[in-house]
């Protein structure tokens, strides 16, 4: 499977990649995007099977990326990894078709719990 | 009417503990040991601002050695491989994580800024019209680390309407 990791923080992208490996998902094809625009472009062009996105990013926020993808008929599995988690954000994410919401800081166990059903 | 801060020192301490458990000390061998010394020195710091239902700043400060160690842990590299950029990015992410968690505990309608990083002591930082209202101060493997919240007095004006 191809997984797109979108986060404007290089450090956090690296932590997400490492945590995916620790949780046993390191064999998947991992690609990265450094802001919301790049996330939208890559989610469209590279056709990933899963998008793991930050919420607050320059150019387009994560929820804007998700909404634009859905508006374009793209139903890629999409969810958030973010340090911000308010009930309003969760509701907005779910209403837009988000599959999961992981709050930073996270552990490999949390990744396993969320991604095992998705990635097998 | 100003908004009562709903994030106290024990909340901050819990967030900090989670950061240590997840990233800085996953083995549970080198926790942040509290000193309760709000005047402990720092050499670098980062911050995020929160505006809206609460106005203020969340500040992460530490020695350079502690920042290097944090970057090495975050990026899974050796201490000697850590560059200034690695250290700055890590400090920014630390402020972002704690700030995001603080925001989640505030009343709805708070906005989080992107992080700012300054490779200079926290004592050199100026947050106009803001005062420190709580903080967690400790030593991590003998190096000072602190996380504190600064509340802006503009809260009173903006919430008065």
UniProtKB/TrEMBL annotation, chain A:
<dbReference type="Pfam" id="PF00072">
    <property type="entry name" value="Response_reg"/>
</dbReference>
<dbReference type="GO" id="GO:0000160">
    <property type="term" value="P:phosphorelay signal transduction system"/>
</dbReference>
<feature type="domain" description="Response regulatory">
    <location>
        <begin position="2"/>
        <end position="119"/>
    </location>
</feature>
<dbReference type="InterPro" id="IPR001789">
    <property type="entry name" value="Sig_transdc_resp-reg_receiver"/>
</dbReference>
<keyword id="KW-0808">Transferase</keyword>
<dbReference type="GO" id="GO:0016301">
    <property type="term" value="F:kinase activity"/>
</dbReference>
<protein>
    <submittedName>
        <fullName>Histidine kinase</fullName>
    </submittedName>
</protein>
<dbReference type="InterPro" id="IPR052048">
    <property type="entry name" value="ST_Response_Regulator"/>
</dbReference>
<dbReference type="InterPro" id="IPR011006">
    <property type="entry name" value="CheY-like_superfamily"/>
</dbReference>
<keyword id="KW-0418">Kinase</keyword>
<feature type="modified residue" description="4-aspartylphosphate">
    <location>
        <position position="54"/>
    </location>
</feature>
<keyword id="KW-0597">Phosphoprotein</keyword>
Automatic annotation (TrEMBL), chain B:
<dbReference type="Pfam" id="PF13690">
    <property type="entry name" value="CheX"/>
</dbReference>
<feature type="domain" description="Chemotaxis phosphatase CheX-like">
    <location>
        <begin position="46"/>
        <end position="126"/>
    </location>
</feature>
<protein>
    <recommendedName>
        <fullName>Chemotaxis phosphatase CheX-like domain-containing protein</fullName>
    </recommendedName>
</protein>
<dbReference type="InterPro" id="IPR028976">
    <property type="entry name" value="CheC-like_sf"/>
</dbReference>
<dbReference type="InterPro" id="IPR028051">
    <property type="entry name" value="CheX-like_dom"/>
</dbReference>
<keyword id="KW-0145">Chemotaxis</keyword>
<dbReference type="GO" id="GO:0006935">
    <property type="term" value="P:chemotaxis"/>
</dbReference>
């Amino acid at each position: 499977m191809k997984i797109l990791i979108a986060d404007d923080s290089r450090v956090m992208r690296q932590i997400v990649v490492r945590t995916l490996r620790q949780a046993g998902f390191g064999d998947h094809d991992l690609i990265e995007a450094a802001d919301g625009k790049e996330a939208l472009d890559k989610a469209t062009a590279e056709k990933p099977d899963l998008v793991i996105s930050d919420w607050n990013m320059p150019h387009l926020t994560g929820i804007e990326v998700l909404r634009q993808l859905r508006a374009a008929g793209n139903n890629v599995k999409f969810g958030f990894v973010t340090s911000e988690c308010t009930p309003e954000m969760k509701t907005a994410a779910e209403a837009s078709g988000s599959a999961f919401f992981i709050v930073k800081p996270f552990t490999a166990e949390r990744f396993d719990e969320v991604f095992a059903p998705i990635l097998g | 009417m100003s908004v009562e801060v709903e994030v106290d020192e024990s909340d901050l301490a819990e967030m900090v503990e989670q950061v240590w458990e997840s990233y800085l000390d996953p083995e549970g061998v080198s926790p942040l040991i509290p000193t309760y010394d709000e005047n402990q020195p720092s050499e670098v710091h980062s911050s995020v601002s929160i505006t809206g239902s609460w106005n203020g700043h969340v500040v992460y400060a530490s020695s350079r050695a502690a920042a290097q160690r944090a970057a090495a842990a975050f990026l899974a590299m050796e201490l000697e491989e850590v560059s200034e950029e690695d250290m700055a990015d890590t400090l920014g992410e630390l402020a972002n994580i704690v700030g995001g968690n603080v925001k989640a505990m505030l009343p709805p309608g708070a906005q989080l800024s992107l992080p700012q990083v300054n490779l200079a002591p926290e004592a050199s930082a100026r947050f106009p019209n803001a005062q420190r209202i709580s903080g967690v101060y400790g030593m991590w493997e003998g190096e000072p680390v602190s996380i504190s919240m600064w509340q802006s007095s503009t809260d009173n004006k903006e919430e008065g309407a």
